[in-house]
Amino acid sequence: MKHKWVLATSVFLVLASTAAVAASSATAGHAASVDPRIGTGGAGHTFPGATVPFGMIQLSPDTAMPDFHHAYAWAAGYQYGDPTIMGFSHTHFSGSGHSDLGDVLVMPIAGDVKLDPGDASQPGSGYRSRFSHATEVARAGYYAVTLSDYGIRAELTAGKRIGWHRYTFPKGRPAHLLLDLRPSIYDYDGKVLWSRLRVREDGTVTGCRLTNGWARGRELCFAMRFNQPMTGRTLYNREQNMPYKGFKGPGNQAKDQDDQNGRALEAVFDFGALGKPLEVKVAISSVSADNAIANLDTHGRGWDFDARRREATEAWNKALAAIDVDGSPSQRTQFYTALYHAFLSPTLSMDVNGQYRGPDHQVHEAKDANGRFDFYSTWSLWDVYRAQQPLMVLLRPDMSTDFVRSLVAAARDSPFGILPVWAYQGLETWCMIGYHAVPVIADAYVKGVRGFDANEALKVMVASATYKPYGDLADYMKLGYVPIDHEPEAASKTLEYAYDDWSLAQMARAMGKSDTAATFMKRSAYWRNAWDPKTGFMRARLSNGQFREPFDPTFAGYGSDYTEGNAWQYSWYVPQDVPGLVKAMGGADKFIAKLDATFDAKVDPAHFKNVEDITGLIGWYAHGNEPSHHMAYLYDYAGAPWKTQQRLKQIMDTQYAATPDGLAGNDDLGQMSAWYVFTALGFYPVTPASDIYAIGRPFVPKAVLHLGGDKTFTVTASPFDGLHPYVGEITLDGHPLRQPFLHHGDLVAGGTLHFTMVAHPPAGATADDAR
Predict the structure, then answer these.
(1) DSSP 3-state assignment of 651?
(2) How confident is the model at residue 36 (pLDDT cuts 50, 70, 90)?
(3) CATH number of the domain that residue 157 is part of
(4) Which residues form the signal peptide (predicted)?
(5) For 174, which DSSP code?
(6) Per the domain annotation, does 90 fall within a domain?
């Protein structure tokens, strides 16, 4: 999709950002520049609701929870184009390419109560309500909307472990709160295996449910309290009478006013005609209802919604203060919203007593040889190892320590003794390929993050890289590649395993483990076994050593050699040995020519109509999916940095905008946003687990990074305007840089990186000169 760079006149920005833009960052903080509705339309899959950095709660409106055959567009529960809201739930993924969660759905109701959500196209057919975006307010840590069918003003905010609600009902109308434990994002008949709902003597509502969704056998419990006494309550078991998902029968409703068990539970809490807003606070736990109560007792004291909202805003101001950016209101909105999205995951997945649920479904304590730590989950590792986690290493090395400890703990708890692949709330989904927790840990260690047991970390990294049943690692270790007649997507797996092996070798080398380093450095060269010099593409081989035929480099989808991509996209995936890839392709000139052909190809987006994740096309380059994310920076390695600068501007101009559909593809737990942050700053980690960043060009005139030890690293660019899109000279602390690369040590030491921008590439520049 194509966007203008500056879209400040759009209705969306007028409604959502006017107040934020007007506020001075000196008084309001950077949170005022965040617009959480960016990415809530199209394929962005972000949610607009309330959360805090890496928080356990993501309290957000759900416009739909369709069955699993149609759930892709609603992976975050909300689509900007939908006309109704069916309720507010407490757990959401941000920008994922798969769906689940949507736990503890509540809906305030004024007047008559309906027990099913109804049809969005038929107002009044259920408890869902129409709404207008003109009534929405979406801020970092706060969301509000008017439910027009009820006349209710709904407000949400969040803390570390608590979701806070405030509902203002129309005067004189009876107020109710409906709690529905049946629906989930990625829902389907039979997903809820068991649930319990209980009203305790003090009025606390607790419950748990066991679901069989993306992560099988996931248990989630909650505790809920109200600021006003109930005038009545009814608990329903709809298992025998459940039109919501096709259950039929005589029904079994209101069997017990205070305790229900079953697969289809609901409750309606009555409050009469209220003279003040109804406030609700909710805590969750993956361990037990008692732990949820403990979370509520610890973090949910008192009743002061506005104070909790201020605390959420302050938490975001503190987090976003890691970078001070100058720029236009639109640039600041895009930058700080991207940084906001990058700070959403992984999420806290541990209770106040230190307990969490692990991949073995057992309860564990977040404690290791270094003592107590915070356990985090929600790991889309195939995505976030590329830029989102390296951004945390740069800006929040303290958080990286707990992230690594959490990954190692998950391996310790795993029945297989290996690191997570795609995990949330402690449980494994086995989604995507590679063992990309390895480069997350290696990148942190190589760049100086400590505070975790490096020997234990290396042990589980090796275990993950040698676990033969996973993704046909047995053949990979034996043959030097994954054979396509034994394992699908074999070319992608060979390439990604080879990179992961290289990253493991870097950590082993830094630890002085030379034998381990040598073993995995040898394996890191296995990418060459996927290279076919005859066609000039990476391909999958059969177990007999022959390349699979027939071969079509444009083909993508089920049954192909590749994961969410084709040969045009995956043939560039050798981040650990770009010079080797340049040589394999015939030298710098041929390498550059093929990169140009990739970006300049005429490709009909309909070519990928059956592959949901391949979006944001510029030729064969697909910015909406991660295998392409490093490609624009590869010109640097072939001696043509001005082409990197051209391509980056092309991507920034067409793939991002300050609108609901302003992300070209799934944000993937902050990876798309982290790419934006790095690129706006002028550099990018093409090869995580090295200490080198490839330099592009900045897209903000000035940025100040506040790093550890009170160090600051400043990036400036001048003249900064549309007439000067190229870099004429780069200086680091006044000294010219001769190559388009920057070391991590240069950043964390503090200093100033200055870009002198020019109208045209340097006169007479050639690839040989730049090299």
Answers:
(1) helix
(2) very high
(3) 2.70.98.10
(4) 1-22
(5) P
(6) yes
Query: Is 420 contained in some domain?
Result: no
| Number of residues that this document lists for the chain | 771
Question: Could you write out the DSSP letters of every residue in 72-115?
Answer: GGGTTS--TT-SEE-EEES---SS-SS-----SEEEEEESS--S
Is the backbone of residue 586 left (phi > 0), alpha (psi -120 to 50) or beta?
Answer: left
Rounded-to-integer distance, Cα 745 and Cα 200, Å: 56
Distance, in Å, from the CA atom of 204 to the CA atom of 211, rounded to the nearest integer, reads: 23
Residue-level pLDDT at 239 = 84
Residue 410: CB atoms within 10 Å: 28
Count CB neighbours of 229 within 10 A.
8
**Distance (Å, rounded) from C-alpha 194 to C-alpha 210?**
5
* Cβ atoms < 10 Å from Cβ of 739: 15
For tokens 């005038």, what's the residue?
231
Task: Note whether 282 and 162 are within 8 A (CB).
Answer: yes
Domain that residue 131 falls in? 11-71+86-319
Maximum C-alpha span of the chain: 84
What's the structural domain count of the chain? 1
Element (H, E) at 712: strand 712-718
Instruction: Please give the full DSSP string across 205-237, using - where no structure is assigned.
Output: EEEEEEEESSSEEEEEEEEEEESS--SEEEEEE
**276-299: burial string, b at 16+ Cβ within 10 Å, e else:** ebbbbbbbbbbbbbebbbbbbeeb
Whole-number Å distance between alpha carbons of 157 and 401: 28
Q: What would the two tokens of residue 362 be?
A: 């057992």
How far is residue 642's CA from residue 647's CA, in Å, rounded to a whole number? 9
Would strands 363-365 and 735-736 be described as parallel, antiparallel, or unpaired?
A: unpaired
Which tens digits make up the pLDDT trace of 635-664? 999 999 999 999 999 999 999 999 999 999
Closest CA to 675 of 417, 448, 415, 339: 339
Residue in the block written with tokens 């900064």: 720
Averaged pLDDT, 204-220:
94
**Which residue shows structure tokens 């203008």?**
4
Q: Is residue 268 included in any domain, yes or no?
A: yes
What b/e sequence results for 344-380 when a residue is b if at least 16 CB atoms lie within 10 Å of its CB, and e otherwise?
bbbbbbbbbeebbbbbbbebbebeeeeeebbbbbbbb
Sign of CA dihedral 385, 390, 396, 397: positive
Inter-residue contact 370 to 405 (CB < 8 Å): yes
The SS3 call for residue 718 is strand
The residue that leads in pLDDT, 669 or 247, is 669
Question: What is the Cα–Cα distance from 742 to 756, expressed in whole angstroms?
Answer: 16
- Indicate whether 184 belongs to any domain: yes
Distance CA 624, CA 616 (A): 5
pLDDT above 60: residue 418: yes
Residue in 376, 333, 329 with CA at minimum distance from that of residue 56: 376
- Determine the straight-line distance between the first and last CA of the chain, rounded to whole angstroms: 35
- Give the DSSP H or E segment for 357: strand 355-357
Look at the pTM and tell me if it is higher than 0.70.
Answer: yes
